Amino acid sequence: MLIQEIHEQNHNRYGYRRIHNELDKKGIKVCVNTVRRIMKVENIKPWYVKKRRKASSIQPESLAAPNRIKQKFKAGKLDSAWLADMTEMETPDGKLYLAIVEDMGSRMVVGHAMSTRITAALPLQALRNALKKRGFPKKLTLHSDQGSQYRSKLYQQELKKHGASCSMSRRGDCYDNALMESFFATFKRELDLKKLQTREETMQAIFEFIEVYYNRKRAHSSLEYKSPEEYESLLKLRKKPIKKNIQSVKKGPALGSSFAVPPRALRPRWTRGTANLRTRRQGKSQTRSRVGTRMALKRE
After folding, report:
1. Phi and psi of 125, rounded to 5°?
2. Parallel, antiparallel, or unpaired for β 81-91 and 94-103?
3. Of 46, 115, 137, 195, which is the most exposed, with the fewest CB atoms less than 10 Å away?
4. How confident is the model at residue 55 (pLDDT cuts 50, 70, 90)?
5. pLDDT tops 50 at residue 234
6. Cα separations (Å) of 190 from 136, 183, 193, 210?
7. For position 247, what pLDDT does the model report?
8. Which domains does the chain have, with CATH numbers?
């Protein structure tokens, strides 16, 4: 076959358009679609052409959870909102996947997991580690992207089991989960994975970077240049109530005088609004009595 000969003469590199051009140079008039059809039937194709992968079915965006965070990334409140995401890394022994759960209130990585497969079990293990570490907080919102792992029944059932609300980014909008994108950018920039020889060394280095360095030592610009652990300790100190000795504070006249009024906190609640009015009336009546005695003395 002439098409097969032209294809072999060019080291199996020509496609149907170039083969059609070679046939035209030799005076053979044929439609380009006919050449394409013949090559498809005879399975003649360039060596570098790979078989196309079948596109996976994409779930409609209407099935995703609503975006409850709405890019309001404010630090200061612990265990109210968590952020989750995954990343892929190349190691000498193959690919390695890392799933992270971060507390939005302190930027601390509260849960993480690593695996050679990117299945629903990977982010699920990271979530369980975070829940166990934080003591299963209530009224929690967990924000992630619309990945199939986070939409899976196993992951959603775990969230419902612990009463956590699910929040998801809009499709194709990386800014909806900007804190996780920032964490992975810092992680891949500051941790040199190229010098590691095995997958086990990579996993050990990742663990030390997160648990030893990032959570406990690395200063964070949005946390007043404190580490997540230092910032959480500061928040817990601020939440402790300050006890005041109310009895030692005395306002107004001395308690032994005729105009003495007990401090507001020591009076019954129903008399707090009328105490000042009562003292004013007492003062006015006494001034009136003094004025009356002076007038009587002048008349005499």
Report:
1. -65, -40
2. antiparallel
3. 195
4. low
5. yes
6. 31, 11, 9, 11
7. 47
8. 2-41 (no CATH), 61-234 (3.30.420.10)
User: Six-digit token pair at 48?
Assistant: 């570098």
pLDDT of res. 77: 86
For residue 188, the tally of other CB atoms under 10 A from its CB is: 12
Enumerate residues 6+ apart whose C-beta is below 8 A from 44. 3, 4, 7, 38
Tokens 């009015």 belong to residue: 277
**Three-state SS sequence of 34-51:** HHHHHHHHCCCCCCCCCC
At residue 156's C-alpha, the angle toward residues 173 and 116, to 5°, is 75
Q: What are phi and psi of 97, to 5 degrees?
A: -110, 140
Please tell me which of 32-46, 61-75, 249-263 the model is most confident about, judged by mean pLDDT: 32-46
Position 259 pLDDT exceeds 60: no
